[in-house]
Specification:
alpha/beta; Rossmann fold; 13 helices; 33% helix
Length: 378
């Protein structure tokens, strides 16, 4: 998920470094956007080192790039932590007098605000009304923690700990409390210890689906078929062939997304060692078991999503609907062979009653697929 982390000018700004690091370690792409006042409390070097991105909070620098619009439109989620009383007032009033507030007003992404200020400021009627205004607009405002504040006094207004903020950010996600198993990549069937029968699946779509499910709050188990690079914040089981994939699919899950390209054939007589070039082997093949149909039969309560890869001349929706019935799944995502090596794709999301086209980069398409799956579950 692409997260824009806004940091405003209060003493709690130093905690934003820990939040930035925690979100990054969960696999999210985080862009830090401190206000000019925030940089009085936390340095650019710290934020740049943790995010891996240059810090630029000047609204009037590089105006030609229209960066406030770019920042707002690229974000999947905007988090403001800490949010001062002054920021709450300006945001509630729609005043855009710095880069952060301009980016907020230019964005349609969900926003989470995490206030931090002195107790009297938090309990002031103006702050109370500003928070009510923001919440009425669908903005999630986290309740401050109680504890030691700047100086000797204590009370509500303290910025919550990083772990509490992380829990709050994802607690209302549509797949919270659900288990999602995603298979990705392509299986390989041994011919000998060097060679194999495989396929061209890159696993990009499956990995993107696992990330999308994680970002929607699910506990995700990724079964990676011959993939080296796997995302953080996700349980991963590495498998090589159909037999190992079958074993990994013995546990039920609320949702199964069968995105892996499973070999249709297995080698009955694999050799030990490396077959000599001078020897032309006679390879005997047998059909692989239908892992998806077996899973839906064993775990009928699971919401299973299958994939249909069709030739250029075939009707994607018709092929997907045929697989929908044959495999006993709730949804089939149909796409064409031409999407295998591309970073973007066009798919058909087919269920028992409808078909909808989803197009774009594979990450964006994956997010939309999982949002639709979550809608089915709800």
């Amino acid at each position: 998920m692409r997260i824009l982390l806004g940091i405003t000018g209060g003493i709690a700004a130093y905690k934003a470094a820990g939040l930035l690091r925690a979100m990054s370690e969960l696999g999210h792409e985080v862009t830090a956007l401190p206000t000019q006042n925030a940089l009085r409390f936390i340095g650019e070097a710290t934020l740049e080192a943790l995010s891996g991105k240059a810090i630029d909070s000047d609204l009037y620098a590089d105006v030609a790039s229209v960066k406030h619009v770019q920042l707002g439109q690229e974000a999947d989620l905007i988090v403001i932590a800490p949010a001062t009383a002054a920021f709450l007032g300006r945001y509630a009033a729609g005043i855009a007098d710095d880069l952060l507030l301009n980016a907020l007003l230019a964005s349609t992404a969900p926003v989470v605000v995490v206030p931090a200020m002195h107790t009297e400021m938090w309990q002031n009627q103006a702050t109370i009304e500003n928070v009510e205004t923001l919440r009425s607009r669908g903005i999630r405002v986290m309740q401050p923690a109680s504890g030691r504040l700047t100086g000797d006094d204590t009370g509500p207004g303290r910025l919550p700990e990083v772990e509490e903020i992380i829990d709050f950010l994802f607690s209302a996600s549509p797949l919270t409390g659900k288990t999602v198993t995603v298979t990705a990549g392509g299986t390989r069937e041994r011919i000998d210890d060097v060679r194999f029968i495989g396929n061209r699946s890159s696993g990009k779509t499956g990995v993107a689906l696992a990330i999308a499910a994680r970002d929607l709050g699910a506990k995700v188990h990724l079964i990676a078929c011959n993939l080296n690079d796997t995302p953080r914040g996700i349980e991963v089981t590495h498998v090589e062939n159909v037999a190992e994939l079958s074993t990994a699919l013995q546990k039920p899950s609320d949702v199964l997304v069968m995105a892996a390209a499973v070999s249709d054939f297995q080698v009955d007589n694999p050799d030990i060692g490396k077959i000599s070039r001078s020897t032309v082997p006679e390879i005997k093949l047998s059909s692989s078991p239908d892992l998806l149909a077996t899973y839906t039969k064993n775990f009928p309560k699971s919401f299973a999503v299958g994939f249909a890869l069709v030739d250029e001349g075939e009707d994607v929706i018709e092929a997907s609907r045929s697989k929908l019935e044959a495999k006993g799944v709730k949804v089939v995502v149909g796409n064409r062979i031409s999407s295998l090596d591309s970073n973007d794709t066009v798919v058909q999301f087919v269920d028992a009653n409808s078909a909808a086209e989803i197009a774009g980069l594979k990450g964006d398409v994956a997010r939309e697929i999982m949002r639709r799956v979550a809608a089915h579950l709800s």
